[in-house]
Amino acid sequence: MILVRRAYLINIAILLTALTLSVAAGPVYIPPGTALRILLDGLPGIALPVNWPETFSAILFKIRLPHAALVALTGAALGGSGAAYQGLFRNPLADPYLIGVASGAGLGAVLAMAAGLPSSLLGMYAVPAAAFLGAALTVLLVYSLAKVGSSLPTTTLILAGVAVSSFATSLTSLLMLRSNEELRRALGWLLGGSILGGWEPVMAVLPYIAVGLGALLVSGHALNVLQFGEEQAEQLGLPAERVKALLILAASLTAAAAVAFSGIIGFVGLIAPHAARLLWGHDYRRLLPLSILGGCSALLLADLLARLLLAPQALPVGIVTALAGAPFFLWLLRRAKNQAYW
Amino acid sequence: MLEINSLSVAYGRQLALEDVSFSVRQGEVVALIGPNGAGKSTLIRAASGVLPALRGNVRVDGVELKLLSPAERARRLAVVPQARNLPPAFTVFETVLLGRTPYLGWMGQASETDRKCVWRALQHTQLSALAERRVGELSGGEQQRVLMARALAQETPILLLDEPTTHLDLQFQAEVLNLARSLANNHHKAVLMALHDLNLAGLYADRVVMLVHGRTQFVGAPHEVLTEHNLTAVYKVPVHVMPHPEYGSPLILPDGRSPEPVEGRGEAQP
């Protein structure tokens, strides 16, 4: 119990540090201490003596904080849905994109651009909205293709996911081949994960991610039972098929919302759950919250590096997640190689 | 009481069980025997409610199984499956605690009562010393006992065991079956177990159900079913049957000298 509490404390401390560094760093450097004071001052009911330039708080509240919030939400979504997929499919290679979220989002975005949607209907949200729809519809398609009668064999689901993903990706490539500049920008945006600014995107994804992650967070016990396979889960009293459908829905919703606004960011959804599992064990009741916290911190730090490494140019964060994440994960893996941790 | 009424089950178009009927009363141990592919495992699965019936039904204390929710079913009957592909990272205690699932809420918060029940189940199966070990580090026999303990933790009036002795050496075969026997005798449970070993069936069961090609060929007391005539007809090898020196139950000895060619034993299992 004490160990578990320590795991949470460590993760929250890392997250707060990452958050502070994230809002401190940028073209205008705001010392972390000052940043913290400005944030405190911004809380209702707290007024600190103002000894910082006016611009600092504008930068913080209008640019840095919403950016950090979106990055953190995205990381949380990827960590949580990755852990859920790995548990559902009982497959260590599962990540949030396994059953079509990424390829569907790409296709949706490109289709929207090709149809000339952006300027008219939804303004700057056209691409994210189309990406979200594409991701959601693709997962639904995979799900219904894989369903055999009333059951959903996991292998069939993964294979259907891989096949539909390839199909969607090829379709996207085909559209790109005969495309204009704008189309290429749409996909570049999605892959590069350059994130929209301001609070609106944060507010747009928040409900999906909150609902999705909320559903996952209370399902740790169900995932534990599902580790024995659907048949034994059913014999232990879990309505396995219904639970599986619910969890797939929740995880996919979460991942789709994250992809729609932040682009396709690899590796975090695969590695955050594994790191949590290596360090704090396989029990999904704590693995899910720890994967969510870990995904949050990991993506915040990766985003920080992406902005700093070649400043003033910002790198696509997806490159950094793998560049910095892979060595870290391999180090963890080597350290724990003698345990049957999976 | 577990009642199987004219039960037929199919995998796709392949009929795996056809018109099977028998019942298991409280305090009774019934052994399910028959050649490979006769439908023993299928019957256990169907009796647990995870395989839908094509025709007929399964009743528990008069209530049709398919009208019950999974949790209600899991409070009435527990299954000891064959130990295969268990999640290796779970500890023995954690695994057995999952047997309390039908009594727990959605979040799986276990009470002191649940924990006590798990310790009792661990004692019954002599696993107390292994409680904190990971299941992946255990031998096949120990894993089988973990599943037995998990079923005990479900505290059900009915136990279904699918080949519970397959991975066990002589000592633990006797222990598991003695445990099944005492659960029936002292705790008044109804026990249905698929068994490969005819001698163990003869020794521990009150009644024997012999399945052949998905149909009940013989039902009755061990000495009625396990006869030279019946066994030779079903298994297509000559056997000797003699009384157990101590208990008088039938002991089956294959006549190793002149086995006839084995034929017509279709595999109907998935």
Can you put this structure into words, describing what you see?
The complex is a heterodimer of chains A (342) and B (270). Chain A has one domain: ABC transporter involved in vitamin B12 uptake, BtuC, CATH 1.10.3470. Chain A is an all-alpha fold and 342 residues long. The mean pLDDT of chain A is 86. Chain A is built from 14 helices and no strands. The longest helix of chain A is centred in the first third of the chain and has 36 residues. Chain B is α/β, with parallel strands linked by helices and 270 residues long. Chain B folds into 2 domains: 175 residues, Rossmann fold; 71 residues, no CATH class. Chain B has 9 helices and 12 strands. Chain B has a 6-stranded mixed sheet with strand order 6-7-8-3-9-10, with helices on both faces. A 4-stranded antiparallel sheet of chain B has the order 2-1-4-5, with helices on one face. The C terminus of chain B is likely disordered. Chains A and B meet through α9 and α10 of A and α2 of B.
